Amino acid sequence: MEDLINKIKSSTTLSSKAEEYVVSIAKETSVSKGDVLIRQGQAVKNTYFVKDGCLRAYCIDKNGKEHTLQFAIKNWWISDFIAIYNNELSTLTIECIADSNIIEFNAKLLDEIYSKFPEFEAFQRKNLERHVVSLHKRILNQLQLTAPERYELFLNQYPDIEQYTPNYHIASYLGITQQSLSRIRVEKSKK
C-alpha cells in the first residue's frame, strides 16, 4: 500500500484522513500468472493498481483474433474503463501474465473519494491527462510508424516486458504477426 500512497503524495498533498480512506477501500492481493481479473462480457466493478508484476488487457474479435490493448507494470492502473464509465459489459479481458501484487479498488468507492477529499481531483486529473496522451501517442504510432519503429518504442516503454510475456502478446500489441516480430528481432540483433 505504501507504493500507492507515495505515488499519490508525489502529486498532491494527502491528509491523514484521506490516506486512511484510501487504505480502507483498498484490497492488497497477490495474483498468479494466468489469473483473470476481468473477462470480456462481464460486468466490471473494480480497477487495479499494479505494485509489481505485469497484467495485460486484451480483446478477442469476432474472428477469434486477440488484440492486446495495454500492459500494466509497476505503478500503472488497469481496468476496462469503458465498461466502468459507460456502465456496459466489459469489452476487455484483464489477465495476469506474471505473478503480481496488486491493489484492488471498487470503482464506485474510489470515485467517492473526490467528493470526500477534493485534493484527489488534481491527482486524478493528472492520471487522466497521462492516460489520454498515452492513448493518442499509441494511435499515432500505429498510424505513422513502421513495425520496427513501434517495436523500438515498445522496448523503451516496457524495458523488462519480454521476460514476462510470450511473443504473440507483444506482436498483438504492435499489430503485427509473430513472424514479423521475429524478423524485426533478427534485423535488430544484426545492428
UniProtKB/TrEMBL annotation:
<dbReference type="Pfam" id="PF00027">
    <property type="entry name" value="cNMP_binding"/>
</dbReference>
<dbReference type="InterPro" id="IPR018490">
    <property type="entry name" value="cNMP-bd_dom_sf"/>
</dbReference>
<dbReference type="GO" id="GO:0016301">
    <property type="term" value="F:kinase activity"/>
</dbReference>
<dbReference type="InterPro" id="IPR014710">
    <property type="entry name" value="RmlC-like_jellyroll"/>
</dbReference>
<feature type="domain" description="Cyclic nucleotide-binding">
    <location>
        <begin position="10"/>
        <end position="131"/>
    </location>
</feature>
<keyword id="KW-0418">Kinase</keyword>
<protein>
    <submittedName>
        <fullName>cAMP-binding domain of CRP or a regulatory subunit of cAMP-dependent protein kinases</fullName>
    </submittedName>
</protein>
<dbReference type="InterPro" id="IPR000595">
    <property type="entry name" value="cNMP-bd_dom"/>
</dbReference>
<keyword id="KW-0808">Transferase</keyword>
